[in-house]
Each structure stands twice: as structure tokens, then as C-alpha cells.
Amino acid sequence: MGLVQTASNSPYRYQDAHLDVDFVRKCALVDSHRLVLTRKEYDLLALLVENAGEIIPRNVLLLRVWGYSSEIRTRTLDVHVRRLRKKLGSYSEQYIETIFGIGYRFQPFRANQRFQTGVPTSPLAASA
Q1: Residues 112, 115, 120, 125: what is their CA dihedral angle, to the nearest 10 degrees?
Q2: Low-confidence winner among 25-29, 36-40, 69-73 (lowest mean pLDDT)
């Protein structure tokens, strides 16, 4: 899993027109306003951002963020995604895409963005 490169060529930060995620300081800003995130919200956002464009299956997110095995049935992921979307505000639907019955995908911000529906080839996504 590689970190997203930005215009500044830093492997420790994701930046686009609205979102800035600093993986070293473990913080995120939207339009230069710091998001107040719980640890799990940050971990979830960071995992999604680090794998931008790739579908991450629910069971992988639950294992990587919470340490839950695939046998555990929980809605905690959905609750955390809902809270994260609320904190991302008007950009939330552009950034976090629900892939019904599979998982979630982070899409970098692009004006007039259209989501691709192709199947990912990410090693993380393939491990599900």
C-alpha cells in the first residue's frame, strides 16, 4: 500500500482542492479548517485516502481499523462513515463512495467528477 503523492511530492500527505490529510500529524483539514475526528474516524479516512480510487471491502475496513474478524456482524463501519461524511460536509459524497454490498471507495476531488465503475486491482482490495 503506497501513500498518495501530492503536488508537493510528499509521500506523507494527501492534498487536493479541498481536503488535506497529514499522515504524520494524523490530522485532516477541509478548506483549511481542521476536522475534529475521533481516532477511528481518522484511521478510517486515512485508510480510504491511502487507497484512493480502490474499492476497499467492508471486511478489510473492519479488520484494519477495528481488528474485527469477518465473523463479527456490526454496523459500526456504517456509523463511522456517516459521521465522517457529516464532517466532510458538502464534499462528502464526492469523496466517499458507497459500493453497495461490497465496501467503500475514496475518490480524490475533481471538478465535474464522474465515478468509474471498474473493478479494482489493488492488492488490498484483492485480499478480501
Answers
A1: 100
A2: 69-73
